[in-house]
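Review this today:
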Amino acid sequence: MTSIHEPTPEFERFLRWQVTSAARRAERFMRPAVPTRSRQYLRLAALVAVSMLIGAFGMTATARMQESQHKQELLSQQQVDLRLAELKMQAARQALGDTQRRFAAGTAGRDVLDGAVMDERLARFDYERAKSKYAEVLSSGQPPREDIASPAVSGRDFVGERLQLDRQSALLRLQAAQQAYDAVTHRHAVGLAGEVALFQAQCDVENARSAAQSLDEQLGLRQRILSGAITAEQGSREWQLVIANRELRVAQSRLRLASRRLDLVRRQSATGVAGKTDLIRAQLDQLEAEQEIATLQARITKLKRGP
């Protein structure tokens, strides 16, 4: 079966007959003095015209075939990713079922059950994300796009769909981080967790909240782009600024944690509990965090300045 853009053998024969007939009619009505060589040129021109037309159709058909092959390769890749996501989701569901039975029997604690519930929900979000990417390739024939300024495809906002899924995942991680912080706070109160562990749990909550906030900002930015309130170029620049600000907040949280650790190691070093190597490592962690912050601040300043 031929493509709608590929000439059928019947069409090629009809086209050749049309051009040849036109050349013969022109030859009959010409003056008798037309030389034989001129008639040969006319026949040759007709054949060249037919060949050019058929060649043009053939090039179009070849391009269509290459485009279709490229789409099939992309779909095959997305099918593999989708199948892997589905298997991970099934494994998470099975693990959740096992954990629920252990919890009911008293052999697993609430924290273990909460972790299994979160893993199952995250796996489900990942599966829905893979489905969205497959559907985008199926609709567009191009690789799935993640840029905030990417246009909708056939009226469907695939980028926005995946941002929503990412936001749900971020909120779930924020909830888990808050629960972990509460547990560490309780252990710290009874002397079972140290100061650094408590501050680490607090930083985890801050980072998870920052990730959720960043995705809220990205979703709002996406809507402004699609509505035409800002141009795609403006949206891309603002998007980079949102990402950079989130990275800066994470780096600042890391610096606070590194400073707390350094203070603790200094106290421990004074009493002989920590060695020189521990002190150097803590100092390097703080210096790296400071350098990361300086780099991000310079990047943010450049983005705010504009092109």
The chain is about 85% helix and 0% strand.
